[in-house]
Amino acid sequence: MADIIQLLPDHVANQIAAGEVVQRPASVVKELLENAIDAKATEITLFIKDAGKTLIQVTDNGVGMSTTDARLSFERHATSKIKSADDLFNLHTKGFRGEALASIAAIAHVELKTKTADEEIGTKICIEGSEVTLQEPTVAPTGTTISVKNLFYNIPARRNFLKSNTVETRHIIDEFHRVAMAHPSVAFKMMHNDTDVFNLPESNVRQRIVGIFGNKTNEKLVPVEEETEILKVNGFVLKPQFAKKGRGEQFFFVNNRFIKSSYLHHAVRSAFEGLIKDGTHPGYFLFLEVAPQSIDINIHPTKTEIKFDDEHAIYAMLRATIKHSLGQFSIAPVLDFNKDSGFDTPYEYSKRPPVAPTIEVDKNFNPFQKEANQRGYVQTAYKRERPSSWESLYIGLKAEGLETPSEVENIEFESEEVTGRLFDATNTNTTDKTTFQLQNKYIVCPIKSGMMVVHQHLAHQRIMYEELLKNMTVQEAVSQQLLFPLQFHFSTTDMEVLEKIKEQLEHTGFVFSAFHDTSIEVSGIPVVVSESQAGHILEQLIDDIKEEVPDAGFSQNDLLAKSMAKSMAVKSGTALNTEAQEHLINQLFACKEPSVSPDNRPVLITLDANDFDKKFS
Ligand code: ADP
Ligand code: MG
Distance (Å, rounded) from C-alpha 249 to C-alpha 8? Predict the structure, then answer.
């Protein structure tokens, strides 16, 4: 048999390897920004067009390259950063593999302009699909500008795989944040299609965080600082009341390199134990320094994960350090308490200066209240003659509306078995619909076949969801005008998200009187929303949208309605009086799909009197 093994031509090998390094425009941004940092730049400008799909350009005032280096920089494994394998264990640079430029040049049109300080004339190189198409001397300032155009122009499958501009831009901004945050002493600018997105002057860590995430962030920060033999930590955590349900601002940098670590996240989370609600996550910006020999980051070119030699010790130390910082913080009086925020975490309550308890809180702790309620229920059981709206609806619905086979079965069974049952006599005598609340969480009501238990929070979600969705499609929500407009601060990323959903939000009843760079003014809110809820709803919404990464706009309304419904719905643990309970049930059964929550969780269960009978036999 003839020999069949061939060496792949370089440009093919480069293209294949490029797939590993460059997944999307944001990967290019990361590599170029890191190269600029490695080149000791003090000013870096990122300019992108069409979410980086058309152009990604990074200009730096770093050391630049000689003509030979400029040409060599595009060769695979060409790096100035390590000379031997030993250097790998003492890395102080971002790059070291010498792959990025070669990879990028294999899948884009690249133009490089560079000049070192001691040269008069710089070098310009154009390269397309690994082929140098031009190399000439050029006039240029000291430093380097690399323009990457038409990414994936020669790999259509990859190009088509790219997400919407919103999503790709968000990835780019994420990378930009990470690099900019790790290097506050470097000035950064970012422009997108000629609009300024960021202009971050040289500063310190705190100012940099505020520069990126908005002025309001400043008062949320709790400093963290600790130095031991194996670990140095500094940075900030966000005060517990700013913990979020979704992925919020969570940044770990190890030796100034952004990393993800669920292990370390867990350490931070556990330091917040008891201070934040279950299911929420604290925000943090933490800079860890360890001996370069004690970590392994050489796992994958684009991996942001890391291995520590001494994981357990680092976990314990991090946890203790943050606990300590939080402890110090909570001793200090909370003067800058954020009155705007609608967070009702137990922590926040514990930090509030004593005020008259609200009715809800009162009810929760009043043992007589429940008794009174229940007695009321027993008494009225024989008095009330109101024709039921919801039960007839409920039963009617079952005959026609519900989709899943099991429910349909249930219904038929129920309507057949109604007569002559234990509860039937009582019901026909009284048509009583009185409900009661169980554990401030469930609403229990008798129905013909037995009883129904409704999850109040999920039920209300369903109600709000359908209402919001209707408003968004019909576009005629009612809003309440506020006497004093509310102001909310957001990061620029969040502002971008808000811009995108502004119109839909207006259909729900929000009225925006101003959109600034990192803040908005709200002069009207949906009637169903309280002033104190508004900020929380918007934040939660932005988080949900960021997490969901909607590609096309088509499910946007749905997502919006779901997220808002969740924030707005009455929480488990809220005491509801009988009137409120009945109102909720009535509203629920006016919904198109009363039996499931927007997230497809069951809203109610029915218990058949037959089953009670069995239990008592
Ligand atoms: P790595 O960063 O892993 O060394 P790259 O492919 O990213 O590999 O870059 C190759 C080489 O090109 C670098 O080692 C560096 O010497 C040079 N280089 C790249 N970008 C710049 C820049 N902005 N300024 C100066 N030199 C650069
Ligand atoms: Mg590099």
Answer: 44
